[in-house]
Design a protein that fits this description.
Strand content: 25-35%
Structural class: alpha+beta
Number of helices: 4
Order of helices and strands: EEEEEHEHEHEEEH
Largest sheet: 5 strands, mixed
Shape: globular
Amino acid sequence: MAQERTGVATAQGNPLTLVGPELKVGDKAPDFKVSKNLLEQASLADYAGKVKLISVVPSLDHTGVCDAQTRRFDKEAAKLGNNVVVLTVSVDLPFAQSRWSDAEGIDNVIILSDYKDRSFGQSYGVLIKEIQLLMRSVFVIDADNTVQYVEYVGEMTEHPNYENAVAAVKALV
């Protein structure tokens, strides 16, 4: 049975249970399988040799903070160079992700879906047991797949610390 953590996250003040381990700086980044679209999958190995900023959001559709978080990291990604990849992971269906991304002009972030088996959510400790969405968080992983920055946002409706995440990436390139 997967590890469960309670009392570390809330949604509008209501406690949530996160499934999976709490990653820490220095941990080896866990592998995962997510969907690029309905037919193609992606894993950590697909981004080998690059610094990875992984932005995790509950849902891109109809949530202002998720929208703002993805837009902010899309702008930052344009300035980080070719040795950095910025990924946004949610459990939205790939159709919805593509529609949203196209409508919003997101060009620099790769948007991935964990809808099939919640592999990412369970491996990174961000799967919310009660609602099967992913908890807002940010991970920076170096080119050797070692975790260099972790932020589990304690309240689902709050923004992550964009400046600290970007500074962690810049320190690696």
